[in-house]
């Protein structure tokens, strides 16, 4: 199949190998790229890219206003800076943002691509070529069962559950519009699989001021998002873990992990989390601090772990007492955000004190 995208087409899909090869000719090395007269501008545009990815509302306007080469370089630099920061949630958000962006350009291709060419199938040559390159075959309206299952396993939409699909002789039927969504998912998974990159320490040091700026903005945003800690908004699973802890029951490893990651994400500091574990009958300060610091990214690896999603919580048996709101969420943090909004509204109505003021959080009592 003829898949020789133009520079402009590549700039809309900078994760493609052909896009990376395209800028190799211009920037022979990363050092050359950073020393290029546009070096500072490129780094700034990479920082903006990460900040856009961290903005809670989806950015509807994904306009490209720089040259194709700068656009591709900004994508690559954003991944390098994000790798230096090495925060799991940040990496997740960046890859989700990039895959949404690619999806937007795929479904609107006729609007921005003057070279738009229809392929043999229902799809453009660009879409078909890209799908092939990324391992999704578009020649028919079905997909091999094994490929399908692998692709949709992280997707939460009920439509994609095998039980809701038409399966015939080892193949799953897939509609045209679903192929775009499946390709978006494929792009997300492939982009995430490569991260974090192994970036030389000297380069991370060079980029440290930019990384610090992103981290600060990210932390402020998280604090704004979660505000002060509202224990009454904790999901049932977390309430149950805290109750177990205070009533003297030992938590399983999965329980400790989920609770620590949850409390850390909503803004409780390390001493606050350790104090909570002080209620446990087998409390061991050294072991607790080690575990907490490891999960919150202050240990040797620098990796911050995130609360497991509901599906994983179910697998480890710590999803308990699920309520009505649980039916609408797939992550304990989503539950907390939604419930906190409700608590905030109720408190506002009754004239109670505002709980979403962004003040320094205090530990649950
Ligand atoms: S459904 Fe999710 S939020 Fe609700 S109890 Fe289970 S794990 Fe917690």
Briefly summarize what is shown:
The chain contains 17 helices and 3 strands. With 365 residues, it is mainly α.
Sequence-ordered SSE layout with sheet pairings:
Layout: H1 7-12, H2 17-24, H3 30-35, H4 39-54, H5 68-85, H6 88-107, H7 109-112, H8 125-133, E1 142-144, H9 145-152, E2 167-168, E3 171-173, H10 176-193, H11 201-226, H12 236-246, H13 253-265, H14 270-277, H15 285-295, H16 310-315, H17 332-349
Antiparallel strand pairs: 1-3, 2-3
Helix pairs in contact: 2-5, 4-5, 4-6, 4-11, 5-11, 6-10, 14-15
The chain binds iron/sulfur cluster.
Describe this structure in words.
The structure is a single chain. This protein is mostly helical. Among the domains are: 132 residues, no CATH class; 123 residues, no CATH class. 56% of the residues lie in helices and 2% in strands. It has a 3-stranded antiparallel beta sheet. Helix 4 crosses helix 6. The longest helix has 26 residues. The chain is globular. The C terminus is likely disordered. Bound molecules: iron/sulfur cluster.
Keywords, please?
about 375 residues; mainly alpha; 3-stranded antiparallel beta sheet; 17 helices; 3 strands; about 55% helix; about 0% strand; globular; disordered C terminus; binds iron/sulfur cluster
